[in-house]
Amino acid sequence: MKLAHPITEREDARQLCSRVLAGTPASVRSLLIDVEGEDALLVFAAGAQPIAMWRLREVSDARLPPRGSIERLVVTSSGTASARNALVEALLDRLGPVAVPMAA
Question: Confidence class of residue 2 from pLDDT cuts 50, 70 and 90?
Answer without folding.
Answer: very low
